Amino acid sequence: LNMNIDEFKLEAFNIYKGIQTAWMNFDTDTIRKLTTDEIYNMYSSQLETLKLKGQKNIMKDIIT
């Protein structure tokens, strides 16, 4: 993989945004694709708890 620091930062930020968007939408398929097994299991459990409570975590003003 050959990328400069700016490309790396952009890619990392895009992954972060993807995870945050998936989190807000309870999209565990996308979270599964973008995280490790450990993170996926933790997030999946937390999202299930939010669902049971009838809550949703909303992120605002994610810088693009």
Give a description of the structure.
- The chain has 64 residues and is mainly alpha-helical.
- The chain has three helices and no strands.
- α1 (5-24) runs antiparallel to α2.
Keywords for this structure?
64 residues; mainly alpha
Number of strands: 0
Summarize the amount of helix as a percent range: 55-70%
Strand content: under 5%
Q: Biggest sheet, in brief?
A: none
The whole-number mean of residue pLDDT values reads 92
Rg from alpha-carbon coordinates: 14 Å
Topology pattern, helix = H, strand = E: HHH
Measured distance between first and last alpha carbons: 24 Å
**Overall outline:** elongated
Low-confidence stretches: none
Q: What is the count of helical runs?
A: 3
SS content category: mainly alpha
Produce a short descriptive summary.
The protein is an all-alpha fold.
Secondary-structure topology with pairs:
Layout: H1 5-24, H2 28-34, H3 37-53
Helix pairs in contact: 1-2
